[in-house]
Amino acid sequence: MKKGVHPTYNRCAVTCVSCGNTFETGSVLKEMKVDTCANCHPYYTGKQRFVQSDGRVDRFNRKYGISEEKK
Questions:
Q1: Which helix (H) or strand (E) holds 26?
Q2: Which of 39, 42, 49, 59 is most buried by its number of CB atoms within 10 A?
Q3: Can you give the residue range of the structural domain that contains 22?
Q4: CB neighbourhood size of 16 (10 A)
């Protein structure tokens, strides 16, 4: 194995953006942020969650004041 070619392997702090859970793992990065983790993922918890997504259509409707009323 050549010296000075491989990155250093560190302990990495992983933070979940959805629920705020933190845990440690090994990586070449110092810290990572993930959208969902095993603590809040629907597959592991058995509960359905709806994540607020800001799509292009939603931004367009808000920009021009279009409301989604059912007639």
A1: strand 22-27
A2: 39
A3: 10-63
A4: 19
CATH of the domain at 42: 4.10.80.400
Over its C-alpha atoms, the chain yields an Rg (Å, rounded) of 20
Residue type, 8: T
More confident residue, 52 or 32: 32
DSSP H or E segment with residue 33: strand 31-34
Residues 6+ apart with CB under 8 A from 69: none
Give domain status of residue 57, yes or no: yes
CA dihedral 8, 20, 54, 70 (to 10 degrees): 160
In the 8-state DSSP scheme, what is residue 70? -
Does residue 39 form part of some domain?
A: yes
Tell me the whole-structure pTM to 2 decimals: 0.53
